[in-house]
Every structure is written in structure tokens, then in C-alpha cells.
Amino acid sequence: KKSSLSEVKVAVVGAPGVGKSALTVRFLTRRYIGEYDHQAETRYKHEVLVDGEPVLFEILDTCPKGEDELPSNETLNWADGCLLVYAITDRRSFNYIRRAKQILSDMPLVLVGNKGDMVHLRQVSTEEGEILAKDYECWFQEVAAAEQVQQVGEVFHELCREVLNARRK
Ligand code: GDP
Ligand code: MG
Fold first, then answer.
1. Residue whose CA is closest, atom 18 of ligand 1?
2. Rounded to the nearest whole angstrom, what is the distance from the C-alpha of residue 87 to the centroid of ligand 1?
3. Which ligand approaches the C-alpha of residue 147 most closely?
4. Ligand 2 centroid vs 4 CA: distance in angstroms?
5. I want to staple 91 with a disulfide (CB 3.0 to 4.6 A). Which of 49, 71, 109, 123 is the partner?
6. d(CA 127, CA 85)
7. pLDDT tens for residues 109-162?
8. Keyword Hydrolase, does the record have it (predicted)?
């Protein structure tokens, strides 16, 4: 029996500069470019196998204009799940996650601490990320879009699994 294509809509949410675009482009192309459009919100469609099953990802790489701009209702209503991204080098981006979480409806989440390569500039400990994820009952991973392909893919795949599991219930 041929399995049908599942569609999974993912919003990539986080403060400006945390690496949302870097993570998204890394996942889509396996490459790291280093500089991305800082103005525009971008939408992508990407078909991949997750655990051997074809999935059509729709990814919205959000683009808040400042620390105070949280994801819009339109975005939150559209999304099946959110990738919540902060940078381990930026305490304020960790606080942004807490504020964003308050306006999220009950939906699958994955918490990502990006810029894991910049340990010398770390402002948020791994343990703090783990504690927040426990509070949100979500999966957590520190990654480096700049250096990793596999682990970046894994965070998108994990969110996809959570969305599909929630849908099956
Ligand atoms: P966005 O505003 O959240 O979309 O952030 P960008 O993807 O545009 O990244 C902001 C800056 O951080 C860019 O200069 C990226 O090259 C840099 N950056 C993104 N991810 C990483 C990472 O994993 N490690 C390091 N060292 N820099 C990163
Ligand atoms: Mg961006």
C-alpha cells in the first residue's frame, strides 16, 4: 500500500539574529551560507523522508522586526507546530521564547538552542534550556547551524514526528 504524503506546517519562531534563517536554509539545502535576508518572512515547501515516510514540510521562517514583535495570530493559527529558537549566546533571545510561549496555543513544540559552536560567548546554560523544555513538555536540543547538518535535520524531524503523533490522537 502506498502511503499518502503528510503535510506538516512549521513556524520557525525566535528573536532577531538567533539563526532562524540559518537553521531553515541548512535543513533545506544542507548548506550554511552565513548571511540571510533580514527583512522578509519566507515560506518554503520541502519534501523529505522522515522515518522512511514522505512528508511535505511547509516552513515559515518568521522575521520579527525587533525583540518586542511576537509571532502574529495568523502565523500561530496557520502552524501545526513551532520550532522555538534562541541563541545560547543571547540571554534576551531566551527571554523572547518565554514571551512567545505565552501566546502559543497548545501545539507541538521543539526548543532549540542555536549557536552551540560559540561556547566561549555562552550566556544560557544547557541546563536552563533543559529546565525550560521540561516546563513546556517539549523536546530540546542545542545545535549549531554553522557546523552541523545532521542535528539540524533532527530537530525538524522531531517536530514533524510530534505533529504527526498529535494528529493521530
Ligand atoms: P535570524 O534573524 O534568526 O534569521 O538569524 P540569521 O539566520 O539571519 O543569523 C543571524 C546571524 O547569526 C548571521 O550572521 C548568521 O551567520 C549567524 N549564525 C546563525 N547560526 C549560527 C551558528 O550556529 N553559529 C554561529 N557562530 N553563527 C550563526
Ligand atoms: Mg531570518
1. 19
2. 9
3. 1
4. 32
5. 123
6. 16
7. 999 999 999 999 999 999 999 999 999 999 999 999 999 889 999 999 999 999
8. yes
